[in-house]
Design brief:
Layout lengths: L1 H16 L19 H17 L6 H6 L5 H18 L6
Amino acid sequence: MVAIITGVIGIQIIKRINLKDSKGQFLDLKDKEDGNWRYWIGGIFFGLGWALVGACPGPIFILLGAGIWPLLIVLFGALLGTFIYGLLKEKLPH
């Protein structure tokens, strides 16, 4: 929820004060297209995986370095999921 609230506030600030990028161009933020169900489904899968592991995806390597070897299974699952997405991404709605 913190990320959602921060994102909403940040986007509103960008839109209201017409922020520019590093090249001096105004940021043109487009509204998301209809069909946000895929974002909900993706978020639920990501969140469930995160909850089952009990750790954010980033620290997987840190926890492995600390000797928590069962996270090798988690790392394998993360890499496998990324590989499968790479194979299927042309067939998925984006």
